[in-house]
Amino acid sequence: MKSFALFLDIDRTLTGNDHVIPQRNIDAIRCARALGHKVFINTGRSYGNIPPEIFSQIEVDGILSGNGTMITIDGKTVFERFMPAETASRLARYYFENKHLWAAFEGRLRSYSIPGRPRELTSLETPVTDFDDYLAKTKYDDIQVIAASAETDRDFLDSFGGELTYFAFDRYYDIVAAGNNKSISMEKTLEITGIPRENSIAFGDSENDLDMLRKAGIGVAVANAQAELLKEADFVSLSNTDGGVGYAIEKLILK
User: Fold this and answer.
1) pLDDT tier for residue 113 given thresholds of 50, 70 and 90
2) What's the CATH class of domain 5-81+180-252?
């Protein structure tokens, strides 16, 4: 029997709109791992901004976090490429100077939120009040990804040249150090585990999942995915709220 590696986006893919994993997904993941398949989280969230409830519901073989900026396999960190502190500080100063914008600087340990985010902060997020407060609170952390207002000046982001990669969503940007994305971290993980690319299955819904779906042996889009992913996917599953991850696992490797 082939051993597959599954790479799962979290938000609006693995979890429902209530941020809870549907039971169908939980059951299918458990069955897949029991058969010897490997399951990896591959998320745009930083390691310190992944809700711990995820891991009370499922067990995984590794975590690829922050759009590929950190890879942990079997509890051991095997790769990391964080945003340089000087680059993150320049971005933080910009968001404090432009008070109509919001940003969350997601670190290896926690997330640090500049005022203005259009929702209540979670228990994983620490508010920062000004630039000096930002420097003090992030001193012993490493920034993996910045989630920032969609009104961010794209020319400003482009002024960093080859320092940054960013992904545009409807309501925000994800900003990371250049050379990071989900497909690169997936390929690194396959190389480390010795699983061939054709035995990889990637699951996603958003722009930062697109390259991962293209590079995987099988790319799975949940039904609520953005139009380009639905067009490019090898397999279109049920929606995230209907257990689309579990349904695809059932059809592709548990059949």
Assistant:
1) very high
2) alpha beta
Asked, colleague to colleague, whether 5-81+180-252 and 85-177 share their fold, the answer is no
Find, among 175, 153, 160, 143, the residue nearest to 97 by Cα: 153
Domain ranges of the chain: 5-81+180-252, 85-177
User: Smallest Cα–Cα separation from 40: which of 190, 178, 179, 143?
Assistant: 190
CATH code that applies to domain 85-177? 3.30.1240.10
Instruction: Report the DSSP pairing between strands 235-236 and 218-221.
Output: parallel
CA dist 235 and 248 (Å) reads 8
Beta strands (DSSP E) in 169-231 are: 172-177, 200-204, 218-221
| pLDDT in the model for residue 81 | 96
Q: What is the pTM of this model?
A: 0.95
Which one, of 40, 58, 18, lies nearest residue 241 by Cα? 18
Average pLDDT estimate for 156-171: 92
